[in-house]
Amino acid sequence: MENNGEMGKFEHIETRLKMSHLEQYVFRVVNYTSRYNNSNSYSYAPINLVGKYVKYPSYGDFPEAYFLRSYGTWWKKSEGHQADYRPQDFDHLGAEDYITLEFESAVVPRDICVYEIYNPGAVVRIWCKLMCPSKRPWVLLWEGASQECPHKSRKFHPKIKPVNHMTNIIRLEINQSLLEYHWSIDAVLLGGCQPTSDLQYNMMLKGLIGNFQREDSVDKRRHSNDICDIKSQNEDLFLNLPYEVILHIFQYLDLKSLSRCAQVNKRWSEAAADPVLYQNLSLKPYWYLVNCSTLEHFMNKCKTLRKLDLSWCGNEVDGFAEQLKMFLRKGCTTLTHLSLGNCEYVNIEIMVEVSACKELVDLRLRNVGQWLQPSLDNLTKLVSLDLTGTDIQDNDLIKILKANRNLKHIIIDLCENLFFLDQVVETVVNYNKNLVTWSSWKTLSLTADGVKLFRECRDLRELDLGWCLINKDPGDCLEHVADGCKQLKRLILSGWRGLNDHLITPAVLMCKELSQLDLLGIKNISVDVCEKALLLLPKLRLLDISFCNSIRQDEVEILRQQYPHITIQRSCQYVVTDYLN
To answer: What CA–CA distance (Å, rounded) separates 85 from 83?
Structure first.
């Protein structure tokens, strides 16, 4: 963001040109990193953001709005959670997800309003994509830390950075780590100025008008100081350090700092280009800068590349898939960790290169879209595998499981082309005996017989079966799981509508290590089984009983007073309507 002094010098284009003002709501959802709904459901779906708000200014948990999958820090405590490949390049605002929105008409942006109707405060950045030619098409309009806000709806209306170019694409970056529960929004409004003639529109589209930023002597002095503000000295003490010490210091720097160091002098430039500094590479925080030249720049530096995170990168860059294919081919012999989350360009040629990375132990292909052959069964050393939101099919997944006997973490949330999940679990039991994490949230082909098979996974500590048996009889499958998986720390049973107190009790009695228990949407359980869990599970820290209709709110409040060290979640099922003037 520019400071107030700089913003004061900005001349808005509408002061020189005759333009009309337009306010509009979302026309189309372009892409997103997280969703709570299945693809055949509109409840909590991203598409609910299209059009004007429906529930605002009411506050609560509404299926007609948009929900993300996670909240708080509970998910980061999972053993299957992806740790940063390069902690030096951290995002100081902690953006975890994004959603990109298209509006019907292009405008010069002046106002953006986000209608938050549940647990507001998660937006940390707002970007716009310029329509005029630019090396950096994405412009940051606003950024700020996530907030803890009162429990009421909010029209989030930040003061955005002024620009004089048109856009019809807005992107929100989101950090829910401070929130007590899920964040939800009802609509997004874009307000701005629109050209009044075709000639004006076409000239702005080509970037021929709009550059009215003024620069005075103060700005020139500031630029001059940026270039050189260091007095000459007879001796540079840093240059006297051994090369190995310089390298050790440089290992703590992020990529931007290394780039600046490379411009200081020849020795610094040599040190900043040393391949030892680029064994781990995370470009996700710089997604808006990454293009084909970026990969080409790092290709020679990453001679011993081990970890590569390109999540969010390259989706709108021509030729990026081809450049990535060459990059992977060059680094395939040493690569051990690869994350391509939300990389829409992943194609069969890239999958071929991924399958040639024989040293891979951690592979993340979250939301890459259509599953493509080969099936990756050429890989044999995988320990962590995240295929969330992909179209992987049963046979391909079974091949991967059989080939990777050391798999510990399997995440197949929202994989809706898995129609024989019982067979997949049977394969895991026979081939992946070291399994620690299994997550198949909203993957719907599992049956009670398949769940029973988990009793053979003696090292299992995290089991996410949320919504898997939504309309199926669970029988005594939990008793089998509890009998075999006594080390369970995390058990998610959201939406198991056939459960009752009797069927849940074995897990409470036998799984003494449980710290997270999710019983959301189980209508037939009573407060009795909740009291039993709170009393008998000494390590319990999270109990979600949202939409458990047989449990009254006053009973929940009593439990919260009795067990203040445990978070007892209860989704806001009521509606607070506070109509604005």
So the answer is: 6
